[in-house]
Write a structure and sequence with these properties.
seven-stranded antiparallel β-sheet; 28 helices; seven-stranded mixed β-sheet; 19% strand; 752 residues
């Protein structure tokens, strides 16, 4: 899928037009255009030149998104540039408008003083209004250029409505001014005075200025929606301190760092690129990437990521990922791409937006015709038609979904929850079943010693000493648990001779001149040891979900060391939250049923499915999907078939270990607590989209008939074009502001 920047779009009708044009290109499989970020995602084999030509032929501009910079950089820069330009236009327009209102309404309505030469000279007054209004129109010429271009390409847009409304008021006023001059020249001052009331110059200028107010507010709010993404981009360090071959240090621009370079990070400094620690230790604050505020202690061999901060210590690292390959760049790209995609619910607004502007133009024409037939003046009928044009707001419809998606993605990124697409952001809130992998998801994924049980007259110290001598040379995962226990208690690892490994069974050697063995009961029996003294204890440990390792010396059992994969501290609470959301929680594991049942009880899942291989997990997820939308939560590697099969795949990973390919959502904190948080955020975002669409539709459903004068015969209510423009200006701003409320959604029960 390729990303493009699109210029010249002003409303949802524009984005709909671009989508249709690009979708018609041979080789394009799908195309989604995002009005908020002025971006387009295209999937297929079509050449970029053909796609850009299709956009250009439709009346807009397009270019491939920059490959060297963040994929969102161009979009955010364009939003900032648009906000600055609109602010300038607004200030200039407001200055001319204030002067215009003084001459057009201040004198007649509030008796503001005027020079005697102008007070009774209606033609001069009209000429001043003409000049001031023309100045406002020139300042806001973009509306007319875009609107006319839309008509010429048979794709009228919001600017077409605005330019038609303001243009009609301007042309009608120009006609009235000429009639006034003819009457004044003929000495008919009564008629000349009458035509003063037919001037709508201030309406034309006011419409353009108020729409610009709305656009400026909208642009400012759009900027707020990209704050989270912009703050991520601002995190990227600008320089790095490299170590040269002579051991000296030099500070270089971040662009000059290459994979393999050695760099140093001192206390208080940011890690410039992804790397692995060669020596030293530091407390690393990774909150910028994961949202986790507690610094992590890291030492030799540990990985560090760009934009994290060393709180204490000094480390030397080797660069492993630079530029677009850093974890930070991946996060920015993922959030940006997700914001550029389109949620399924947006299709409703797209269908309406595609025909909205032509229908509004037709309604305005019919409105004018009906009022003329009813015997009203041309000025009155035109005012009703102009009101219809300027109150209609396709922008609110077009922004309803993307602004909520953008803010929702930003909130997720701030908390270490990354959604791959807008579709997934919507789908996550609809899941009915969640399948959880056990190892590394519900549990820590790293076995630890839970029990040291000496047998007979042997001591715990002697048992651990024997176990350490054997496991020090073993590569089995459980050997690591024994070694970590030895480090914890400060035990010394003795030297062993004649070390041997029996695959699948155990290990043996000679310690202090005596034969020692370690492994399961079957192996110890095979080497001639009597395991009966430990059989009862071993069974009790196994029944409790632990893995017993037996150790023997000179043919006699000396004790058992049990290991287990501990449940993560927050797993039970997270699963409880999911169940409170009416989600059926299933645990999938390849472990035996006893261990699985124990973990299932402690964690509180609804259902346990044990003894399943990766392909078995895939089949279970497929079966669950038949009963309702299903999410799979796993490590993103061993569980990739099930993650791909699920309606929503959620990978528990962190930093450079992000399982981007197989998962739809990545949890940077490696915490199961973020699963209900992701669901909660999805539901809040979907609810916000529904609110935005409701108000956008209701605004137009009520506003257009009101502007057309439907309520005039019944209640005497009529809408001045200037008030219609003000209402239209606020509609998009309100939609964007409502989306910004997502920033205050509480993702977790106990905190934000």
């Amino acid at each position: 899928m390729k990303k493009y920047n699109v210029t010249g779009m002003s409303c949802a009708a524009c984005s709909s037009r671009v989508e249709k044009a690009v979708s018609a290109v041979d080789g394009v499989q799908s195309c989604t255009v995002n009005l908020l970020t002025n971006s387009m995602m295209v999937e297929g084999t079509a050449a970029p030149d053909a796609i850009i030509k299709a956009v250009t032929d439709a009346g807009y501009g397009a270019s491939e998104a920059g490959k060297k910079s963040s994929s969102s950089d161009d979009g955010t820069k364009e939003i900032r540039a648009a906000e600055s330009a609109l602010r300038t236009r607004l200030i200039v327009s407001a200055i001319f408008l204030v002067v215009l209102m003084y001459f057009s309404m201040g004198h007649t309505m509030w008796n503001f003083p005027l020079p005697s030469a102008l007070a009774e000279n209606h033609v001069a007054m009209a000429l001043i209004q003409l000049l001031l209004t023309t100045a406002v129109m020139v300042v806001n010429q973009k509306f007319f250029i875009s609107g006319v271009r839309g008509l010429l390409h048979r794709s009228p847009n919001m600017d077409t409505l605005v330019s038609l409304g303001a243009g009609a008021a301007y042309v009608y006023s120009l006609w009235a001014m000429f009639e006034m001059t003819f009457a004044a020249a003929a000495g008919d001052h009564v008629s000349a005075m009458h035509y003063m009331h037919e001037l709508y110059f201030e309406s034309a200028a006011m419409i353009l200025t108020l729409i610009t107010v709305g656009k400026a507010l909208e642009a400012h709010s759009k900027g707020k929606t990209t704050d989270a993404l912009r703050s991520l981009m601002d995190l990227a360090p600008k320089t790095a301190v490299l170590v040269d071959e002579s051991g000296g240090e030099r500070e270089v621009p971040i662009e000059d760092v290459s994979v393999g370079d050695i760099f140093v990070v001192r206390s208080g400094a940011s890690v410039p690129v992804d790397g692995v620690i060669l020596d030293g230790s530091a407390a690393i604050d990774e909150s910028a990437l994961t949202g986790e505020s507690v610094p992590l202690e890291k030492g030799e061999g540990d990985r560090v990521s760009a934009a994290t901060v060393s709180m204490t210590g000094y480390i030397r690292c080797r660069a492993t990922g630079v530029g677009e390959d850093t974890a930070l760049a991946q996060i920015i790209r993922m959030v940006s791409d997700a914001s550029a995609t389109k949620a399924p619910i947006a299709k409703v607004a797209d269908k309406v937006s595609g025909v909205f502007v032509p229908v509004v133009i037709a309604i305005a024409a019919v409105t004018i015709a009906i009022w003329l037939i009813a015997g009203e003046s041309v000025g009155y009928a035109l005012a009703r038609g102009i009101s219809v044009l300027v109150i209609s707001c396709p922008c609110a419809l077009g922004l309803a979904t993307p602004v909520a998606i953008m803010v929702g993605n930003g909130v997720g990124a701030r908390h270490g929850i990354l959604f791959k697409t807008a579709e997934i952001l919507e789908a996550a809130g609809k899941v009915k079943n969640i399948a959880l992998d056990k190892t590394g998801t519900i549990t820590e994924g790293v076995p630890e010693v839970t029990d040291v049980v000496p047998i007979g007259n042997n001591s715990a110290d002697e048992l651990l000493r024997t176990a350490l001598s054997l496991e020090a040379r073993s590569e089995h995962p459980l050997a690591g648990a024994v070694m970590r226990e030895g480090e914890r208690v400060g035990a010394v690892v003795p030297e062993i001779e004649d070390f041997k490994v029996a695959p699948g069974g155990g290990v043996s050697g000679v310690l202090d001149g005596k034969a020692v063995f370690g492994g399961n009961a079957r192996y110890l029996t095979e080497v001639g040891c009597d395991v009966s003294p430990a059989a009862q204890s071993a069974k009790a440990l196994a029944d409790s979900g632990k893995t017993p390792l037996m150790f023997a010396k000179d043919g006699q059992i000396i004790g058992i060391i049990a290991t287990a994969d501990r449940i993560r501290p927050d797993s039970a609470e997270a699963i409880g939250e999911l169940k409170d959301m009416d989600i059926h929680v299933v645990m999938l594991t390849g472990d035996n049923k006893n261990t699985a049942a124990l973990i299932g009880r402690e964690s509180g899942v609804d259902e346990v499915i044990a003894d399943v291989l990766p392909d078995g997990k895939d089949a279970v997820v497929a079966e669950l999907s038949k009963k309702g939308s299903t999410a799979m939560v796993g490590d993103g590697i061993n569980d990739s078939p099930a993650l791909t099969r699920a309606d929503v795949g959620i990978a528990v990973g962190a930093g450079t270990d992000i399982a981007i390919d197989s998962a739809d959502i990545v949890l940077m904190n490696s915490s199961l607590a973020d699963v209900p948080a992701a669901v909660r955020l999805s539901r809040a975002t979907l609810r916000n989209i529904h609110e935005n669409l409701f108000w956008a539709f209701i605004y137009n459903v009520i506003g257009i008939p009101f502007a057309a004068g439907v309520f005039v015969p019944l209640l005497g209510w009529e809408l001045n074009p200037m008030f219609a423009a003000a209402a239209m200006s606020l509609s998009s701003f309100c939609v964007v502001t409502n989306a910004l409320r997502l920033n205050f959604v509480k993702l977790k029960k106990n905190n934000n």
